[in-house]
Recover the amino acids of this structure.
């Protein structure tokens, strides 16, 4: 029943151009909330039109498990340390699958079966450049690459950098799959508002420096998981974004670049999902609603 209602709502959006053209911010939020209401779970949204300053916000300060969206703050810290001369993107790291839990300082390993990228595991003992690991961390969400990079730059430094940017709702404590920390509730967390501000800074070339912001955007444009924000957008629209998912959780966050040169930031977060496939489809539909709101 809920999915049928969502389909009817989206059909109305597609077959009633005059209604879409006159859509107010309040009406747009109402449509978005109606789509979310078709799903079992909790959702948050933060949208910012970088050309007009318009924003749409829904539960934007609610805290969510970050899942792999925490890899974007790690990306920022790597470029910050590179700008300070503390590392070079051409430096290499040994591929060693052993990491320290923040819960009790014990060591743990990652299981390739739980990672979205598995090739690195077959090359343990070899070296890869930071640049290569950054690309894999973002574009295919490699947990192995992420933990190696966090081990290099320090999770505490990521947290300090976010605080310095007044992004206290983007909270990075640890690497990925630190199960002992997870059991103690020591988790990376984000809000839609926090990630929106991070991407607003990046889009405005204010993260680290303009060249670093541009470089980070180029990496994010190569994202391989495109089921949410880009899924229902027309050809010619580009999205620099980072997704995140664990059981019952699916997120997407990034910058949308329109063919006419305009751009906007969109963050979609979810948790406690019962039907993840349906929820992903619903969030993709919300992204389409936002696109039509911008284009009207």
């Amino acid at each position: 029943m809920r999915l049928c209602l969502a389909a009817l709502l989206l059909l109305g959006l597609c077959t009633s151009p005059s209604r879409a053209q006159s859509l107010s911010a309040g009406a747009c939020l109402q449509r978005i909330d109606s789509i979310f209401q078709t799903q079992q779970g909790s959702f948050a949204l933060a949208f910012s039109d970088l050309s007009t300053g318009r924003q749409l916000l829904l539960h934007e300060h609610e805290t969510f498990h970050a899942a792999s969206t925490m890899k974007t703050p790690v990306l920022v810290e790597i470029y910050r340390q590179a700008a300070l001369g503390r590392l070079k993107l051409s430096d290499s790291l040994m591929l060693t699958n052993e990491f320290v839990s923040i819960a009790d300082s014990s060591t743990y390993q990652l299981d390739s079966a739980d990672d979205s990228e598995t090739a690195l595991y077959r090359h343990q003992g070899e070296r890869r450049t930071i640049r290569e690991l950054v690309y894999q961390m973002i574009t295919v969400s490699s947990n192995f690459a992420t933990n190696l990079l966090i081990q290099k730059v320090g999770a505490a430094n990521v947290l300090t950098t976010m605080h310095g940017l007044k992004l206290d709702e983007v909270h990075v404590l640890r690497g990925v799959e630190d199960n002992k920390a997870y059991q103690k509730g020591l988790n990376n967390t984000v809000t839609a508002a926090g990630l929106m501000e991070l991407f607003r800074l990046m889009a405005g070339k204010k993260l680290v420096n303009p060249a670093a912001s541009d470089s980070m955007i180029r990496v994010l444009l190569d994202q391989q998981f495109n089921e949410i924000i880009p899924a229902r957008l027309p050809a010619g629209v580009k999205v620099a974004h980072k997704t995140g998912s664990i059981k019952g959780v699916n997120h997407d966050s990034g910058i949308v670049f329109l063919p006419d040169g305009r751009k906007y930031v969109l963050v979609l977060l979810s948790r406690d999902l019962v039907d993840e496939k349906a929820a992903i489809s619903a969030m993709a539909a919300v992204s389409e609603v936002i696109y039509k709101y911008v284009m009207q």
